[in-house]
Amino acid sequence: MVLDWQQSASVDGAPKELQHFSLDEVGRHAAADDCWIVVRGRVYDVTSYVEEHPGGLLILKNAGGDATAGFHGPQHPPRVFDVIDDFLIGDLTQ
User: Fold this and answer.
1) Is this prediction's pTM over 0.85?
2) Rounded distance between C-alpha atoms, residue 91 and residue 12, angstroms
3) In angstroms, rounded to a whole number, what is the distance separating the alpha carbons of residues 81 and 84?
4) Cα 26 to chain center, whole Å?
5) Residues 69 and 45: beta-carbon distance below 8 Å
6) What is the helix (H) or strand (E) element at residue 37, kind and residue range?
7) What is the dihedral of CA 63, 59, 81, 34, to 10 degrees?
8) Which domain of life is it from (predicted)?
C-alpha cells in the first residue's frame, strides 16, 4: 500500500481521505467477505454491498481487479453511478 493521500467529498460533504493502492493490493481483496473493485482507476470496497447486489454474486466476477467494463455494462441503471461513490476508498497507482 502506498501512503499517498488525497481528499474527496464524502456523502455528508466533508472531505474524506483517500489512499493509493497497487493492483496487487486490490487483488488481495477478491472474496465475498472482502471485495474490492477498480472502476476507471478508482478503488472501491464493495464488501458490504455484495449480498445486496441485484445481479447476485456476479459482482464477484471482477473482485480484486478492474471491473470498469462490467460496471459500465447495459445491465446497470444510471443510479449506479451515484451509489458507487459511497464505497470509494482510494485510487489505483500506476
Assistant:
1) no
2) 20
3) 6
4) 9
5) no
6) strand 34-39
7) -50
8) Eukaryota
Question: CB–CB of 53/59 below 8 Å?
Answer: yes
Q: Is 36 exposed, middle or buried (0-12, 13-18, 19+ CB in 10 A)?
A: buried
Grid cell 445491465 is found at 75
Cell of 71: 460496471
d(CA 92, CA 20): 6
Read off the C-alpha cell for 94: 500506476
Instruction: Count other C-beta atoms under 10 Å from residue 90's C-beta.
Output: 24
pLDDT tens digit sequence for 69-82: 888 877 766 777 78
**What grid cell was written down for 64?**
480484486
